[in-house]
Design brief:
Helix content is 36%, strand content 20%. It has 301 residues and is an alpha/beta fold. α1 packs parallel to α12, α4 packs across α5 and α5 crosses α8. The radius of gyration is 18 Å and the shape is globular.
Length: 301
């Protein structure tokens, strides 16, 4: 079976790291490029984490350095969740892999031209890099087969009562993607919250690679969503991995077509998904097969 060519835009980040591990092992998709931006933490950390992961895996995919801040506002990261360096203090050792000379913006266009009408672009970060590419290269929206976006929410947020982090971090970029006219699947916070992993699920994910295994042990100690007192277990929320699952297994979700854009005003509603009934333009995930997602995660090694 021919693999679907994908480009992943990311800001590693614990959940991005799990997402990249999932993508690396997939038999359905082939990662042609990784573009990196600031988001969960600053760019110097997210880029180092992406390069370190690829180096540890001997993964020869090209990695491109992107935006260090959102389009119009200053960066407000999620260091309190991911730790100062994005991996709860874990650092890859003796990283030899370097980022490519080409910028992330130009790399997105170059990859889309190379795989015209085939490329799926997966947005796991504040979507600054992709928005900048769409602004610089208007032709780009005709070259991308599909966008899969981890961002937004149809109900409540995780940064404010209304906004999910990626869209809140760069709402102007999110608006550009949602209004681009590209065929889009939105994997919002609302559906990713239906695919929580238990501590037993997380503990069952083992890698034969010592650095990867050490990384997972470190981040799993600090990065978890909540504690279920009734069941006496930690619950883990890995939203970016759910978006990769959407690219790997299109039948693992139920979607509803909606007209979605993003609130860009700098007020309490910043980053909120604005949903209208007329002219639906986005395939919004509303249900996920959590058992299939868990099974997919347990294939990481």
């Amino acid at each position: 079976m021919k693999k679907t060519p994908v480009l992943i835009d990311t800001d590693p980040g614990v959940d991005d790291t799990y997402a990249l591990l999932l993508a690396h092992l997939s038999s359905n998709i082939e990662v042609k490029a990784i573009t990196v931006s600031a988001g969960n933490v600053g760019l110097k950390y997210t880029l180092k984490n992406a390069l370190g992961l690829c180096d540890a895996l001997a993964w020869e995919v090209p990695v491109y350095k992107g935006a260090d801040k959102p389009l119009k506002i200053s960066l407000e990261d999620a260091e309190d969740i991911h730790g100062q360096n994005g991996l709860c203090g874990f650092e890859y050792k003796n990283v030899l892999k370097k980022s490519e000379d080409l910028s992330a913006v130009d790399a997105i266009y170059k990859t889309a031209k190379e795989y015209a009408s085939e490329l799926v672009v997966i947005s796991l970060a504040p979507p600054t890099n992709i928005a900048m590419a769409l602004l610089k290269y208007p032709e780009l929206k005709t070259l991308i087969k599909e966008l899969v976006i981890m961002g937004g929410s149809t109900d409540k947020g995780n940064v404010t009562p209304y906004a999910e982090f990626n869209f809140w971090c760069d709402p102007d970029a999110a608006k550009i993607l949602l209004e681009s006219g590209i065929e889009t699947k939105l994997i919002g916070l609302n559906v990713t919250m239906k695919a929580l992993l238990t501590a037993d699920d997380i503990d069952s994910i083992k890698s034969e690679n010592k650095q990867i295994n050490d990384m997972m042990k470190k981040v799993n100690t600090f990065y978890y969503h909540s504690y279920d007192e009734d069941k006496n277990v930690k619950l883990y929320h890995i939203p970016d991995a759910v978006a990769i699952f959407a690219a790997i297994n299109p039948n693992g979700f139920e979607y509803k077509k909606m007209n979605v854009t993003c609130e860009t005003a700098q007020n309490e509603y910043r980053g909120m998904c604005k949903i209208f009934e007329d002219s639906p333009n986005i395939n919004v995930a509303i249900e996920v097969d959590s058992d299939k997602f868990k099974a997919q995660m347990k294939k990481i090694k």
